[in-house]
Specification:
The complex is a heterodimer of chains A (about 250) and B (about 300). Chain A is an alpha+beta fold. Chain A has one domain: Alpha-Beta Plaits, CATH 3.30.70.20. In chain A, about 25% of the residues lie in helices and about 20% in strands. Chain A is built from eight helices and eleven strands. In chain A, the strands form five sheets. A three-stranded mixed beta sheet of chain A has the order 10-1-11. In chain A, strands 2-3 form a two-stranded antiparallel sheet. By secondary structure, chain B is an all-alpha fold. Chain B has one domain: Formate dehydrogenase/DMSO reductase fold (Up-down Bundle), CATH 1.20.1630.10. Chain B contains eleven helices and one strand. The chains are: A alpha+beta (about 250), B mainly alpha (about 300). Chains A and B meet through strand 4, strand 5, helix 2, helix 3 and strand 8 of A and helix 3, helix 7, strand 1 and helix 8 of B.
Chain lengths: ~250, ~300
């Protein structure tokens, strides 16, 4: 069914902290690892060890430079499906393979119905969907639907693979439909943003922009001054005063 | 956007077949003998059908294509499929009635004509409805598709008339010229207005980092070209866009119009006109895809 359901009360999604992400690519790798053995067909590669390796990935980390001069900074930028409320990838699907779950808002692909026409990938402004080179069906982030509800896993593992693996805690998973959830409070406190709001997709996933620099107007701290203690103590005080006296 | 040959073939050939069918059902092509009904009927349905079948060649799972008929409530691609099937069934019925020497009621012809052009409209809306491709997301896009179906169809009607040795009135030849010139007029306007449309948004809005200042890509998320760049970042055509536009215009518009002016009754010349038009439309459709920019390329450093 590719009509969008009524907006669900529960909106599961990710909050990605651009201030913290160090671009280590661990989430990319763990996503590939989990999803090649999880929901649906394996996440294939083509020519993996050859001249032009390629493959389907559900999470990719870009890096950008933002700003100019002394205040410019490097921002690592993970990008995966944003599980949009107004998901264009769902309504364009001709077969009903692409759907948004009414109960928690997760956007999924029924791989048994997908004809691999690629129109959903064309309709997504974020590049969240990639056609599997081996299976010929569309792959996308499932929000690790096979982890988050999986009673066979220890409770701390019932989060998406990318969130579980992030060594810096830059990725958070939760219910963005609940204004009092941890993720919603984080978004409120840090003025979380939507990507490409002009596309009208109403993404559920939010990004926390890099924090403003502390005291950006102050002169940079001198490392030389930090290394030199201004009033020596003990033995060095005696050396200092003795050398002073020698003139 | 990467131009898939199967899609280019589909929109061009099916579009021509539908345009031809539209003129046939309103009686512009008087089919007097059962043999001519049979011949023209098969040719028309073959054009539409072959185009539709070719459109399934780019699918990952062509054997599941029938599933694409299910989501007509939300998907233009699905609507296109459903309408095409209805139109082909309707046309098969129409030719069957004509073959037996019967008459199709006036209202049924009008309904069929309407369905034919709604089908062409649905084809165009598969692309025009995508907000992510600013150059397609324009009201002139469907107008181009509709005009080319009508103009190409009328040109084909003239060719069939000449082949069947039926008279071609001066008014009909003039109408074909006017329609062809109008269709290319709309296309030229599309190239100026929609075809140059800048992307909605920027790398700053795409990344949400605009508050920090100008944003530049530093590192791509992978070492090789990925599916997104392969599918959405096609750049080959842009280098030769001006030349290719001229070729499309020459083959698709100028040569057919010249033939319509100089030899409007010659079967051979009109057949050449149809072939030139189809060749020109291939180039036009190829450019339609190849020149389109997808908004996701902003993440990869594409500007405007």
């Amino acid at each position: 069914m590719t009509m969008l359901p009524e907006p669900s009360a529960i909106k599961l999604g990710l909050v990605i902290d651009l201030d913290i992400c160090v671009g280590c690519q661990a989430c990319v790798v763990n996503c590939k690892e989990w999803n090649t053995a999880g929901y649906g067909a394996p996440l294939a590669d083509s020519d993996a060890y050859g001249e032009a390796p390629s493959g389907a990935w559900l999470n990719r980390v870009h890096a950008y430079e933002a700003g100019d001069g002394g205040d410019s900074r490097t921002v690592h930028f993970p990008k995966s499906c944003l599980h949009c409320e107004e998901a264009p990838c769902v309504t364009v699907c001709p077969t009903g393979a692409s759907f948004k779950r009414a109960e928690d808002g997760i956007v999924l692909v029924n791989e048994d119905w997908c004809i691999g026409c690629g129109l959903c990938a064309w309709s997504c402004p974020y590049g969240a969907r990639e056609l599997d080179p081996a299976e010929g069906v569309m792959k996308k982030c499932t929000l690790c639907v096979d982890r988050i509800y999986n009673d066979n896993l220890p409770e701390e593992d019932r989060v998406p693979a990318c969130v579980r693996t992030c060594p810096t805690n830059a990725r958070h998973f939760g219910d963005l439909g609940d204004p009092n959830s941890e993720v919603s409070l984080m978004v409120a406190a840090r003025d979380g943003i939507d990507l490409m709001p002009e596309q009208g997709t109403k993404p559920v996933n939010k990004y926390l922009p890099p924090r403003p620099r502390r005291a950006a107007d102050e002169a940079p701290v001198s490392l030389v001054a930090m290394a030199e203690a201004d009033t020596p103590k003990g033995f060095w005080k005696w050396v200092d005063s003795t050398l002073d006296r020698l003139g | 956007m990467r131009p898939a040959w199967s899609i280019i073939f589909f929109t061009t050939i099916s579009g021509l077949g539908l345009g031809l069918a539209g003129w046939i059902v309103i009686g512009l092509l008087p089919l007097m003998t059962p043999a001519s009904v049979m011949g023209v009927g098969i040719a028309t349905l073959a054009l539409i059908g072959v185009g539709l079948i070719s459109s399934t060649f780019h699918l990952g799972h062509p054997e599941r294509a029938w599933r694409a008929l299910s989501q007509w409530r939300s998907s233009w691609l699905s609507r296109e499929g459903v309408l095409a099937v209805i139109v082909m069934a309707g046309l098969a019925g129409w030719f069957a009635v004509a073959y037996r020497g019967g008459y199709v009621p006036f209202w049924a012809n009008l309904v069929l004509l309407g369905l034919i052009y709604v089908t062409v409209y649905a084809t165009s809306m598969i692309y025009a409805s995508l907000k992510t491709v600013a150059r397609w997301h324009h009201p002139l896009t469907p107008v181009c598709y509709l005009m080319f179906a009508a103009a190409g169809g009328l040109l084909a009607v003239l060719a069939v008339l000449a082949i069947l040795r039926l008279p071609i009135t001066a008014a009909l030849a003039q109408a074909a010229i006017v329609l062809m010139l109008s269709a290319w007029g709309v296309k030229l306007a599309w190239w100026r207005v929609a075809g140059m449309a800048p992307q909605a948004g920027s790398i700053e809005s795409a990344t949400g980092l605009g508050a920090l200042g100008a944003v530049r890509p530093l590192m791509p998320p992978h070492t090789e070209e990925n599916y997104l760049q392969h599918e959405m970042g096609f750049v080959v055509a842009r280098k030769h866009a001006d030349k290719l536009r001229m070729i499309a215009l020459l083959l698709g518009g100028a040569i057919p119009v010249l033939i319509l002016v100089l030899a409007p009754a010659s079967a051979g010349a009109l057949a050449v006109a149809v072939l030139a038009h189809v060749a020109g439309m291939f180039v036009e459709r190829w450019l339609f895809f190849a020149e389109a920019k997808h908004v996701v390329t902003l993440y990869y450093g594409e500007t405007a």
